[in-house]
Specification:
2 copies of one chain form a homodimer. By secondary structure, chain A is mainly alpha-helical. In chain A, 62% of the residues lie in helices and 4% in strands. The longest helix of chain A is centred in the C-terminal third of the chain and has 28 residues. The structure holds a DNA duplex.
DNA sequence: GCATATTTGTCCGTATGTATA
DNA sequence: CTATACATACGGACAAATATG
């Protein structure tokens, strides 16, 4: 035992659709990224080159290029001569992510303030998407909408580099989310906050939006850290699934 | 003509030193990164897989892995079926970089303020390194020290993810620096600013440090944008070197 | 601690498709 | 339009490191 390798998750993989101009490595990276983000491949498991190359029907060379891309996104961890593993977030990483996310979001609000307003269409859309998904009790989609909300908030800065950093941060956070059992109602408490912050931004009440965001971030970080530390207590005897 | 390929720069390459635990791809990436940062490979030139693989005595598979890493760092631009090119910065990219850098630095100062102080040893070291390099008129080292200064400033946040983003931003900025002819005295005007900001941080005068940084950033961005736009006027007839 | 099996690291050869002269 | 050069992608091979019994 002790060697947890991703085998089961590659059931429905009949090869990736090769359509337009994306290279094979990028297509592989996209497939693996979504599997990881959706929690179908859990943190800590090793990704076997041979097995995945076979199930995706690609060469090991292309697969290794994809691994490089995902490792750079911090979704995979490359250990020399041992293989690649789905990253596991520790408390320090969670703190760093929340700190950086808050920084970028507050800065984006400042940019909007300086510009005398902002286009809040996408922000509003993400909020609504979260609400409707919550009604339908599709919690994974709620999580996706939540990520889109933060993405849109930081997007007010109008800086593509900020956007890229944010999308990495949010993808990374998913790693921690899926470790928690009751993902069902993890995001629910924050839906009203999203609504509130969106309204404040729309109304140009920047300081209040910033304050709301700060308390929001602090609360979310604490909750996630608590959930993580409580998991450490459990011995978790490497239960199969 | 019109096809500028890197050939000449790989003169002194007798293969890369394979020492410790770094993979070949990472070693290749390190070599290419430093060549690009130091301006030995100019923006826009294509990096031939065959030529570089031969001169570095590595396989094209490993080289392609290294290309993926550098493309993700935005130092290379991957154009499908055309190859990889050293990235060229346009005005929009420069503006984004300066905006994000300023955001991270101001946030770091805020963190230091909240912590009631900060360890400014590395910051002071980078400032001194810049001064001594300026005295010796080694301008490339002055640029390196300047990058280290900003790295140390953002490092006050104590966030490794911020550090990583910053190092990417500073590496990217080098691409623009090397396009300018008189790199000799580009950084010199900012040495007093570095000293001043360092002192303000050391003395805990956070607001003044932030203000100084803002004006610093604005000035540097304008100067670089001016230099870039003036270059666009010149036809630059693809002079050999 | 040792022998073996597995897996990664790296290279080579080659066929195919794409862009450019 | 053809020809050439190149990137793309694959599969096989072997060495080196690691994991297993």
């Amino acid at each position: 035992m002790s060697d947890v390798v991703a085998e089961r998750w590659l059931d429905g993989m009949t090869g990736l659709q090769r359509e337009d101009g994306e290279s094979v490595a990028e297509q592989i990276a996209s497939v693996l990224r979504s599997r990881i983000i959706q929690g179908q491949i859990q943190p800590g498991v090793r990704l076997s080159e041979e097995a995945i190359a076979a199930s995706l029907d690609v060469s090991r060379n292309s697969l290794r290029e994809a691994f490089r891309l995902l490792a750079h996104d911090r979704l995979l961890k490359h250990e020399k001569n041992r293989g690649v593993f789905v990253r596991e977030l520790d408390a320090a990483a969670v703190r760093e992510i929340y700190q950086l996310r808050l920084t970028l979001e507050l800065s984006a609000i400042d940019t909007a303030r300086a510009a005398g307003g902002a286009d809040t269409a996408v922000l509003r859309d993400s909020v609504n998407a979260g609400l409707t998904s919550a009604v339908k009790e599709e919690w994974v989609d709620v999580g996706t909408a939540n990520a889109a909300f933060h993405q849109a908030l930081a997007g007010l800065a109008g800086n593509s580099r900020v956007d890229e950093v944010m999308s990495q941060l949010m993808a990374e956070l998913r790693l921690a989310f899926h470790v928690m059992q009751p993902i069902k109602d993890f995001f629910s408490p924050y839906l009203p906050d999203n609504v509130r912050i969106c309204e404040l931004v729309e109304q140009g009440r920047w300081d209040e939006a910033g304050d709301a965001l700060r308390s929001y971030s602090e609360r979310a970080e604490s909750q996630l850290l608590d959930a993580l530390s409580s998991l450490d207590d459990v011995p978790l005897t490497a239960s199969g699934t």
